[in-house]
Amino acid sequence: MNRDDEQHEFVMGYANKLSVQQGDALELKVSTTAPEFDVEIIRFDHYFCEPDPSRDRVIASTASGWYPGRVQEIAIGSYAIVPTLADVSLETGFTFQCWFQPLLIQPSVAQCVFARWDAENQRGFRLAVESGGILLASFHDARGGGIHLESEESLIVDRWYFVAVRIDLVAKTITLDVNGCKRRWLSRTTSRSEVDYGWFESEMSDFDDDAGDEEYRHVAPNGNGQGATRSAPDAEDHGWLPAGDFLLGAGGLDRREAGQAFPLHCLNGKIDRPACWNRALTDVELDALETGTLRPEAADGCLAVWDLAQDVATNKLVDISGNEHHGRTVNMPMRAVTGANWDGTAVTIAQNPAHYGAIAFHQDDLDDCGWETDLIVQTEPDWPSGVYAARLHIEGSYDYVPFYLRPSAGSPKAKVLFLAPTNTYLAYGNEKQFQVIWTDPDFIAKSTDVDVEVKPLDRFLLNHPELGASIYDLHPDGSGICHSSRLRPVLTMRPRFLHWLHNQARHFPADLYLIEWLEREGIAYDVATDEDLHLHGASLLDDYAVVLTGSHPEYWTFPMLQGLEAYLEGGGKLMYLGGNGFYWVTAMDDASPHFIEVRRGVSGIRAWSSHPGEITLATTGEPGGLWRHRGLPPNSLCGVGFASEGWGGAPGYVRTEGSFDSRAAFIFEGVGDDEIIGDFGFIMNGAAGDEIDRLDYDLGTPTETLRLATTELRHSDYYQLVVEDCSFVLPGLGGTEEPRVRADLTYLEDRNGGAVFSTGSINWIGSLTWNGGRNNVSTITRNVLQRFAGIV
């Protein structure tokens, strides 16, 4: 990445796979402003922030060398396309109808609800929300003629509307219906605008895809604000309805040389139960559609009726008319969302799919950058398992594109497996929460005692929104982002990423402290990822004596939990070396495991809340939210669960009575009875900080669990009790007064041989290499690992 926000040269990339086996290949995709870039393959063996190539462990690779550079663009923004409707003949007219909910009205950019548009020749027809919330139907023919028909009133954000646009080529009329839906006991509103385009002869500005609304909007000369035309076509000419891409949620596709299609005028809004016909419906028919007395497929001339409640786990757009005009979504719009007819009687799509016939489109949705491959990285069978990166370099800039190398099938395994929390890396991928520094300085003052700052990487992400955001960020309309993909440059998954709240390592770079410690200790280890565990389950873990987590294994799928539990039940051993783990219900698609989906629900420490009725995960159909509220709290798995978070100090642990139990004697060999454990470290100066977990028998901690050490009443009031523990909000919930605000060190073993050692803190790993590894955090970790792995 670039060194500072004034530097414009950059190099960045991503791989088509995050994890491969020894001997497998992965594709690397690169974008750079430089004419060429250099590639080396390195294996991470130490923590670092600023690149120091002289210290990198470079691996001999056929991929090494110089490559021609180019800028690869990103087609961001979700939409749906129906290829078979691109050139369907519309001889007498056309009707498009849907229910529509605008989620954002932008001051200078048109947002299209639907279009059949030929972007190359600038012709076709579209329905768009323009500046001020006016709904505008625009028609442009091959000869440059055009008509604009506007809604009588501005749309209101978050309100549902019954919308229809009709063009009658025989009667030469265009009609726009925009009816506000009934809101509980409040009556609906109706609006029907019509223009006879054969009567008007007027000059008008052309619709310009690169311009704002004001450059293409036109008001009719009769003063009604409804329409205008120039050289209107004859009915037989059909010039108003030329062939073009048929789209929902976008106004056209700009196709580039690389084969990518860039959506134009993306929508921030919901579209519910869309349908279209090859004629202009009558007023009576349209009114019957709105009241539900006429099924859309029963009206003559029906082309397509899309049931958006079907196949919500896929990108399919299902046409139920029988005409097979199926489509597909692009860039993962949000599905399994409530429609205009949702009334609260069903809170999941399974209860009443008819109430979930909507899709929420957003201009910043992103699934796959779709970049072309620049080089192939062929791994070798003799490369040791570990965390690797393709180191990209141009003058003054580096990027490290990480990947994980697993042992090949049938090859010898180490006794120790590091399970990288890659779902967490994706969840926080390209996070932009640092903007709160400007928008809510009081939040900063109440959250941390550190002088926070916006760093060059943060500014780069802010200046390049096409790189997508994290599931901690919000869409432009203020709703939460629920998807995150690895098929893009995830620049927060890099060694130099420092988190804005404490200006120190978090997530991927923080876990490099564990890698460095393992290397220093000479402990042989293999690596795997969350994605690997999701796809392979317990079979991924069974060959290992002990599994190590990273510092923040927060996002777990149900198959991951099943795999870990089966491993422990079979006598496996887990070292949970982090905090706030096993917290959020997370979904992955087995067929397309490059993205995760999270629905926040209405509880837990969260950056946003789910809208009513929209907690169900579209990918799997299961309820989202906290695993705790699914009856699977982390306490019952590993002995501890989320208790608090804060960025004002990180105290050490004091030993408790449980640490002197004979079962735990091996853990504290070489540690004094009165030693404070971890009152030092590279992250916040202590081992117990950031997000912390506690033992709590009432929340499912097994009674066999030993509480070895604790930070009870040692935290500052920057740490507050998590909201899911608060039945009432009362004073005294901070770390200086509330005993539940603490990190606990615990040990749990079962007669089947399974065992779990938990540290209860994100920061634990950041203390391992303090003083060259000569410290009690390192000693305790080494003692447990050697016992669990059978290492002498």
Characterization of the model:
The structure is a single chain. Helix 7 packs across helix 9. The radius of gyration is 29 Å and the shape is globular. The longest helix is centred in the middle third of the chain and has 14 residues, at 508-521. 11% of the residues lie in helices and 27% in strands. Strand 21 and strand 22 (327-330) form a beta hairpin. With 792 residues, the protein is an alpha+beta fold. The model is unreliable at 1-6 and 199-239 (pLDDT under 50). The strands form 8 sheets. The chain has a 16-stranded antiparallel beta sheet that branches.
In short:
With 792 residues, the chain is α+β, with helices and mostly antiparallel strands.
Helices and strands in order:
Blueprint: E1 11-15, E2 19-21, E3 25-32, E4 36-43, E5 57-59, E6 65-68, E7 79-81, E8 93-102, E9 111-118, E10 123-129, E11 135-140, E12 146-150, E13 161-168, E14 173-180, E15 192-196, E16 245-248, E17 253-255, E18 261-263, E19 269-277, H1 283-291, E20 302-307, E21 316-319, E22 327-330, E23 334-337, E24 358-361, E25 375-378, E26 386-394, E27 397-406, E28 416-420, H2 422-427, H3 436-439, H4 441-447, H5 456-463, E29 483-485, H6 508-521, E30 525-529, H7 530-536, H8 538-541, E31 546-549, E32 555-556, H9 558-569, E33 573-576, E34 584-585, E35 587-588, E36 595-597, H10 634-638, E37 640-646, E38 654-655, E39 690-695, E40 706-710, E41 720-721, E42 744-749, E43 755-758, H11 776-789
Parallel strand pairs: 2-27, 28-30, 28-31, 31-33, 32-34, 33-43
Antiparallel strand pairs: 1-3, 3-25, 4-5, 4-6, 4-26, 7-16, 7-22, 8-13, 8-19, 9-10, 9-16, 10-11, 11-12, 13-14, 14-15, 17-18, 19-20, 19-24, 20-21, 21-22, 23-24, 26-27, 29-36, 35-36, 37-39, 37-41, 38-40, 40-42, 42-43
